[in-house]
């Protein structure tokens, strides 16, 4: 949406909130002008993050501009909760009025109206503060065991550290990434998977901030697939940059990871059984940006050794799962949803994606959906904690 109509829309929504809350607050406390100031700041600063990206592309942007950008994103998160809670309050007041008019319920309006307005303001602010802390902390490690039927003994305990949806950009910078890298390296995983939406900006803008990813360490290396935000930011340039950093970008292709020393294998069958096919597809929507990048789980297995039966797919969006299951993968690792990131957006994710977060089964394939390691937009996570996922392959119980 263009910035001008967006600014008008958000301003009108702020006016609605002011009309619904401020009169009630004025009857309760002389400090009500503070709420008016907060609403005014929010209305003015909220559109700032949507101003032309050309301002953000200047890597030497003035600190004042960066501060305003931060304030705008924080305002966006606060306003989101405030608007939803105001609607909930109005619905509650409407139901109370109906109960009073039709059922004779005695409602103490002189207490309910002002205190409910204060509760809305307090809850929105509290949720935003907690959400800010949750978003800015280093993601915790979530351990997930995935039972694979017929898993060879050599692959039992194979670990993949999954990062997803970091969204390096205006508020996620070098230091944030370095903390993630340090946390992942302490896990000592066999492989590292980055399942898309790594960046929110161009290579010149973010090259220095994404540089710590070159320090990721795992026995078999680090593998990346593209997400939709890579295509917004210039996917081809980012693919080149990530490869320059030593990361393996999988574009509808696979690698065979050999877990046993070749010289220690007694037969070819034993050698193949101890291997794992790790495949990666481009984002589900990549074909809209570049027809040559159309996502294809079947193509990602082209020429894969048929005797290597354990196959894992990296796919940014859970929507890739039906085709991946048909292609014969045992596990798909995805992200994209952020687990909803914060209420009420978690309610809308199922409208677009078959899975929101966690481990699920689709036919004979498992799919794990990460809640994401960073965040997008407002620095706010509430009810959907960020995660560094340590996936461990284990034999399925008979």
From TrEMBL:
InterPro entries, per the entry: Calcineurin-like_PHP, Metallo-depent_PP-like, Metallophosphoesterase_sf
GO molecular function: metal ion binding; UDP-2,3-diacylglucosamine hydrolase activity
Domain Calcineurin-like phosphoesterase: from-to ranges: 159-339
Record keyword Membrane present: yes
GO biological process terms on file: lipid A biosynthetic process
Stretches that traverse the bilayer: 30-50, 70-100, 112-133
GO cellular component: membrane
Keywords, ordered alphabetically: Hydrolase, Membrane, Metal-binding, Transmembrane, Transmembrane helix
UniProt xrefs under Pfam families: Metallophos (PF00149)
Protein's recorded name: MPP superfamily phosphohydrolase
